[in-house]
Amino acid sequence: MTLWTDYKNIVDGLSTAILMLDQTLRIQYLNPACEALFGVSARQVHNQLAADCIFQDPKDLDPIQDVLESQVGYIKREALLRFNRLRSVRADYSVSPIVDDDQNPKLLIEFRELDRIMRISKDDAQLHHQHTNRQLIRGIAHEVKNPLGGIRGAAQLLEMNFPDDIKEYTQVIIQETDRLCNLVDQMLGPNTTQKIEPLNIHEVLERVRTIILASAPATIVIERDYDVSLPDISGIKDQLIQSTLNIAQNAYQALTEDQTQTAPKIIFRTRVIRNFTIGGTRHRIAACIEIIDNGPGITEELQDAIFFPMISGRANGNGIGLSIAQSIVNQHHGLIEYDSEPGLTRFSIILPLE
Question: Model pTM greater than 0.70?
Answer without folding.
Answer: no
